Amino acid sequence: MKLTSLMLCALCSAALAPAQDRPDPTVYRVEFQLRDGGDKAAPIVRRYSMLMDPSGKGSFRLGQRVPYSTGAVQAVSSGGQPTPLVSTQFQYAEVGVNIDCRLRETGTKVALNSDLEISTVTAPDKGSTSNPLMPTIGSMRLSVAAVLTPGKPTSVASIDDPVTHRKFEVEATVTKVN
Questions:
Q1: Pairing relationship of beta strands 44-52 and 154-160 according to DSSP bridges
Q2: Which of 75, 96, 118, 158 makes a 20 to 30 Å CA pair with 62?
Q3: What pTM was estimated for this model as a whole?
Q4: How many CB atoms lie within 10 A of CB 69?
């Protein structure tokens, strides 16, 4: 019994040791810049940043739910003639930016593994008679595996979209915070 109590006291005192005796965990700032080079005059840059430790997983979710029609119910009158539309059924598509990443220290560099998904509701072509209840959703997904020098911005992906003829570039920067 005394040995158990002694071990318990030793464990508790180690857990309550002053913070200066324990090393601070390493924290990195991971920044992504997504550049839409479709408009050469004014390329659009989106920036996403998160803090994380190299042993964890960072996730970033930003977006909205967009309704789209999956069906309509139309009642029939007693005379067999259709009545005006009664109800429309909807589902929801989630659009926006999703980023999942992991870090691993490799000497003086940092290995970055990341999955990025960018989706948007695209505007219909001019003169199109598309149904507003049926949006067109554009999506880009990529997985990145790169070894980065901390503090140095690095281009980790470049995509030429064959559908929209736009060019996207993804730049990542990993900076040690402490």
A1: unpaired
A2: 158
A3: 0.71
A4: 14
